[in-house]
Amino acid sequence: MRQNPSFTLADIAEIRRVIEANPWATIVSDGSEGLVASHYAVLLDDDRDDLTIVAHVGRPDDLIHGLGERELLVAFQGPHGYISPGWYGDVQAVPTWNYTAVHLAGVPEILSPEENLQVLDRLVDRFEGRMPDPRGMWERPNDPAFVHRLAAGTVGFRLTPTRVVAKRKLSQNKPVETIETVIGELDGDGPFANPALAAEMRRAQDARTNAAGRNAAS
């Protein structure tokens, strides 16, 4: 992902927020037969406060990706959507696409079976916990033999990235009035309404406003 200073996302807490809110990631590596991509749910490592992530792949994806042997790219896609040039007013403009994305790259560490089981347990709890009657991985009718048999078909990994590219392209290069108009359109009921993207733009705009206020006060 090409970086642009106007759209750089460098705040670790914000990058963690994007990962936490968008756990369905694309995992890419340069395999023995060329580029290969897989899709899995990914979690931040509970024991770290950096950008270390944990996840698993199903066998034989571990062999296809050369897991633990070569660099892995893990891409997270946040809210994104179409931006009409008509929202800019009577000025020269073309359509664009606003988005938030995070790319983490590095050589992953393979987890032990015990660690992998803990990650799988966390993964189930993370999503099943939202259900009105959550059903954990170890709850009946599952039994330990069933859980261990399924876990054996997966390989867990931990990735502490050595390269991070995070981008928040949310019309920051436009005048404040234009940004507010775009947010209003995304929050509306038009064909390209996108409340999640509007909220992301509002968050970025508030951060810019607060930063400008701090700079003016210093």
TrEMBL record:
InterPro entries: Split_barrel_FMN-bd, TR_PAI2-type
GO BP: proteolysis
Domain of life: Bacteria
Entry keyword Ribosomal protein: no
Entry GO MF terms: peptidase activity
Keyword terms: Hydrolase, Protease
SUPFAM superfamilies the record matches: FMN-binding split barrel
Protein name according to UniProt: Protease synthase and sporulation protein PAI 2
